[in-house]
């Protein structure tokens, strides 16, 4: 089975084919040795995304007992308490990502033209950290969406849109990374435009996600779309 974990050293998504077998409503995953990278990843961060017949599923990894090297992978099942917890986690993650964007924008605004080469190096460092974190956030969301749409079928259209936006964001991050790592000088205007394009798209994505998912996850009733919010008196 294909399992995505967060690299324990870099936070970068790691995709690995792991020996698994079904166990009740979840799976047992076995590591051939204690140095298996995915095994070390889950010891640090126990969240995993499993590819089951081409569909991502969020899972929580619990170490096996009795000296066995491996984990019990418990698939996410949504109930009222878990829904509220996910809503809280979503807001925390979005706040962290917004803070990272604000820090990068502050650097863009505060560095004179003469310091642009240094800024480029700084932004590249920020991009590696931020991009890895955002990719993991979206991969984990894709896995959680499978459980959310099972519990809330009415959210399927919104979830499908969010999945598509995850793909769009991923491509935009690759463009920014290529711009920062390319040879030669980069026009500050081009760098700023690319950054603002990504930042604007992310803010719209976060706002749509919060408006459409949080009410259902919190048990507050039907979600309110952004278009509906704009039509209120």
From TrEMBL:
Which InterPro entries does the record match to this protein? Answer: Hemerythrin-like, Split_barrel_FMN-bd
**Coiled-coil zones:** none
Q: Name one Pfam family in it.
A: Hemerythrin
Could you tell me which residue ranges the Hemerythrin-like domain spans?
90-217
Entry protein name: Hemerythrin-like domain-containing protein
Q: What is the lineage of its organism?
A: Bacteria, Bacillati, Actinomycetota, Actinomycetes, Pseudonocardiales
